[in-house]
Structure prediction request, 224 residues.
Amino acid sequence: MKKKAFIAIISVSMLASMGTGALAATKLQEIKAYLNPEIKVQVDGTYTELRDVNGNAIAPISYKDTNYFPIRAISDALGVAVDYNSATKTIILGEKVDGVSIAKEFKDMYHTKDPAQTTFKGKDYKEAYFNTGSGDRSSNFMLHPNKEHQTLYLQIAAVDGDITDFTIEDSNNNIILKKVDVIKSAEGLVTIQVDIGGIKSLYIHGKVKSGATVFVPLTTSYYK
Prediction:
């Protein structure tokens, strides 16, 4: 529903507010337009106040009987990822063609590049989250897609014991995006897919028993 609404709205909402230094471009044309705070926006039947990247309320620009909104504000309201490629001057909406490894900027005490810990069933993944903590415990880490990606493809394996109550949450809004009751050790490496459009940070956690290890290959887990 949201994606259908997005297509309809975006057809009249193509003013990009991406901090691209557009004023320096040579193909800009000066126009006369007006801010129109009387225009309201509904998303799935609920009125929504659009905001800029700093959280300030914004009004659309009216020009020749058409209303224009910053594309970032619309994408945030609909939960659709938006990014900008400065090299090609391209606005990217939704899922990207090429995946982006979660290894980039991943930080956690269990982040390792030790081949003894990054290898699973004969394949060396070069970088991994390898939680070998002692005792019954919660295994958890953070990811920061920063609203730039639509989907997370997370690979994970339970070693020498199952992972239970595995959960992926929107950490800024305390909303559960995905929950798996049990990831069995016998399953080997599994891939969990979750929609993360419009989400800034993720809290990923699960429960493991003493002696069990949580293995997440960072180079083959990715955003799109």
Residues 3-20 have pLDDT under 50 and may be disordered. Residues 152 and 223 are 5 Å apart (CA to CA). The first strand starts at residue 34 and ends at 35.
